[in-house]
# Entry
Amino acid sequence: MSAPFDVERCRALFPALSKRVAGLPAVYLDGPGGSQVPREVIEAVSRYLAGSNANSGGVFATSVETDAMLEEAHRAAADLVGTRDPGCIAFGANMTTLTLSLARALSRTWRPGDEVLVTRLDHDANISPWIQAATDAGATVRHVAFRPEDCTLDLDDLRAKLSGKTRLVAAGCASNAVGTISPVGEIVAMAHAAGARVYLDAVHFAPHALMDVEAWDCDFLACSAYKFFGPHVGVLYGKRELLASLPAYKLRPSPEELPHRWETGTQSHEGIAGTLAAIDYLAGLGRAAAGASAGRRVALAAAFDAIRAYELGLSRHLLAKLSALRTVKVFGITDGGRLDRRTPTFSFTHERKTPLAVAQHLAREGIFVWSGHFYALAVTEALGLEPSGLVRVGLLHYNTAEEIDRLGKALAEID
# Structure
């Protein structure tokens, strides 16, 4: 039996968690909008800027050091997403920018009459880029519904809309609005059976569970380091044959070999150094169980096993607190026996207060939550919640049951 997750030891690694608001410790329940970072990430960014700051491709010391760091960062990101080929990893400004770039390239392979499927459970970064790209190509976009009673993707609707005309299915691994984890392996298999490629948005999934692009067999996947305890850097995975053959938009002198043809312009080297440190932070959590000599992928798997188990307990505790409030309606999976099918991200409405008013009340208590649509506009529109949206409480592995208790008490005090 593995040792219980040591949350206090973990919290000590995050300087931001010492912040106080109105004399009280700050409670960071805003993780779905961006996580806090451990000290080793801050130090990696600072160390790079202080000692190795240079452009890539030179023969002098700091450039050689930069190239070595970039090479290791590609290997680390490959371990994180689950591919043995670091050449299939491209860094960029963020997931949205990377998606827009890839969508533009893919659209050059589409023709009028082709179809692209997006889901109403997704963040708009995995919807609008495909709508715009399809418009450019004269292709048709079809929207896959979700089930409003538990906010799970309607796989029957997906199956009905797949056809020989489908060129791409864009789906999320987990909803940033309501926390639902989708069965991406099944989605990929269904899409491939119809001859379509699959683009997965793993931004919200990445801090909570282990990604596995080779097991899922997805064609593309994107995530953002600032959601998994790193800086503002985007990460794109694509199958080698696709990244090598698609018509990339790039400058003439840029190398054609991977990953350079997708990493346009000078990258945020300090951000990538921090991303490498964030991945190694997660691997370090796993080595407590997997052993100090465990390889990075093995250690990451152990880390996410521990994170998932700990966060499941937090989810149960938070759901109990929210369920005890008659004024609150929670959206998404609320069946205690199915909490493993969601992340610890819970969104709700209050019967008397707007989401913004609830968030403002909590902010005065030093509790940080989001309100609105969180760019998951398709979700809030389908649920009939616009223009106010939802209150979103997002837990990460540095959160505690005591913080949830503070949230429950503050919500109960709303008049």
